[in-house]
Design goal:
By secondary structure, this protein is mainly α. The chain is built from five helices and two strands; from the N terminus they run αααααββ.
Length: 92
């Protein structure tokens, strides 16, 4: 039981280190990369904005501004409605 709890604690610590005290842009990029690793059938059903908003405390407008600029600069591509994400090469 202790091993399972240690595993979950380490997983949550890693996740929190990725998003706590960081600027909005790296947080959004982190979750876009995470979303891109999901299976294709899952990505087809997941809305990008909802996925990021559920996992962070970021506002809708700040997420949409970053996603819009990444799409304009051709770092990502997605279908109308924010589905079927394709990540090409996100900037650090």
């Amino acid at each position: 039981m202790a091993e399972v709890q240690a595993y979950h604690t380490n997983t949550m610590l890693y996740r929190d280190l990725q998003i706590v005290n960081q600027r909005t842009f790296p947080v959004v990029c982190h979750y876009l990369r995470e979303l891109d690793k999901l299976p294709e059938e899952t990505k087809a059903r997941v809305n990008i904005l909802n996925y990021i908003q559920e996992r962070t405390g970021l506002s809708r407008s700040s997420i949409l501004n970053i996603i819009s600029s990444l799409k304009t600069d051709k770092f990502i591509n997605f279908a109308r409605g924010g589905y079927m994400l394709q990540v090409f090469d996100l900037p650090e």
